[in-house]
Amino acid sequence: MPQTTYTVGRDPADNLYIQDLSISQLHTVATLHENGALLIADSQSSNGTFLERQGLDIRLDRKWVVATEIVKFGRFAIQVAELLSLVSATLTAPTPAAAPFSVRLLRCSCGAMKPRALTAWPAGARSYTLSATH
Question: How far is CA 12 from the centre of its chain?
């Protein structure tokens, strides 16, 4: 797998689209390298990108992360393993050759941020859309 770069933010065009006001339009750029390593780089976001280590939130500008760590974009926290899982699922999905993946996250009525359930690719689609579940 070649190196691939994904955007995280509040813009529907971002690969990981998070509908939360603590997230900037372009919050973070994540680069998945061919060896499976993930590099997270904050894009000068308003509320920052943090790595949770030993109970502390460490602000990061650019950092290699491992699967067991938790990364925070604004108020949204996700374990790196889960983030990698979303990337892997979308890389193996039947998509048009040039289409990037896009994951949409919504705040559930319970307050948690949740991915939306996978829906079928419409003809000519260039993004990966998910629908709400609890």
Answer: 12
